[in-house]
Amino acid sequence: MAQKQLSIDRITLSRRNLFASVRLDRLAEYRDDPKWVENAMNSAAARFVPLWRSRSLLANTDEGQLAVYLKPGELEHLDAIQPPTLLGTDGKRYFFALSINDRQQENVLALHPEARFLDLRLASVDMDAKHAGVLAYAKALHYWQYRHLFCGICGHPNRLESSGHKLVCNNEECARQSFPRIDPAIIVLISHGDACLLGRNANWPPKRFSTLAGFVEPGESLEDAVVREVFEEAQVRLSTIRYVSSQPWPFPSSAMCGFFAEAESRECGPTDEMEEVRWLTVSELESAVATDEVRLPPPVSIAFQLIADWYRQQCGRDLEKLVREAGSWLSRKRIE
Ligand SMILES: [Zn+2]
User: Fold this and answer.
1) pLDDT for 22-74, tens place per residue?
2) Rounded to the nearest whole angstrom, what is the distance from the C-alpha of residue 156 to the centroid of ligand 1?
3) How far is the CA of 195 from the centre of ligand 1 (A)?
4) What pLDDT, in 10s, does the model give residues 324-335?
5) For residue 39, what are the domain limits?
6) What's the domain count of the chain?
7) Is residue 10 part of a domain?
8) What's the distance, Cα to Cα, between the start and end of the chain in Å?
9) DSSP of 195-249, one letter per residue?
10) 246 alpha carbon to ligand 1 midpoint, in Å?
């Protein structure tokens, strides 16, 4: 049964993960063509994804959180902070990320009284996948641009080039180029026989149990990182590891690489990183969720998808339905 589930190709598997569903043509071939970019930016098809203090513009509707894009003419001085960043096209519109200042933020909210600037990580629980992906892509570039205002070699200011996808040091003698950075992280669902291992970090919200995860260190393969992190976090030794799917996770700049792993045994223990680790069978997991003893991560996360895949392979049922019925995500459904 497990093999049947995994016969889906990796692109399909990864596209189920929120933020990975951006189907934009990124138009990389036009990034260094200022004339083309200017024409696209001034055309009726331009749409701007505003970012104010790293927050995204969303409207709270009956269908959940909807992304709000600005049309040409809705905002003056598009380059008030820095030039807009070309994101790409969905075939109908050209999307640009736009950093706005406090005064522009007030103007935007006056034009869109139904909308608010919200933390994407919280709001995305209830978002359409395509638009969550566009906002995540914009937020990731915005974060990188703001964390690299100055050259890391000589300290002079950097300037944006390639329509927001490259930074170049203003010091002509240095002229160092830098590109968006992503921090790879592994995340892994560990199983042994009919049980899976979930852990609880003391810094997480109350009752939250999830898969194990950690950053890949220099000099490590993704698989090395899985083996090391699992032992560091739960003192579990692994016998096999399989790659499943990946997810962009712009909080602030990770790429999550998801794995299934089988443990050699159920020997495990709490560590400095995890205050509790538990082996749970399907019925134990169902009971723990129903009684609110265990709260799983939100469905937007690859962590939840890995647990849901394991659950489906074990019993054929839908974990998201079970959790929604138990009500543990209700408090997150509407975010003010
Ligand atoms: Zn420099």
Assistant:
1) 678 999 999 999 999 999 999 999 999 999 999 999 998 887 788 999 999 99
2) 5
3) 53
4) 888 766 444 433
5) 19-147
6) 3
7) no
8) 42
9) EEEEEE-TTSSTTB-B-EEEEPPTT--HHHHHHHHHHHHH---EEEEEEEEEEEE
10) 34
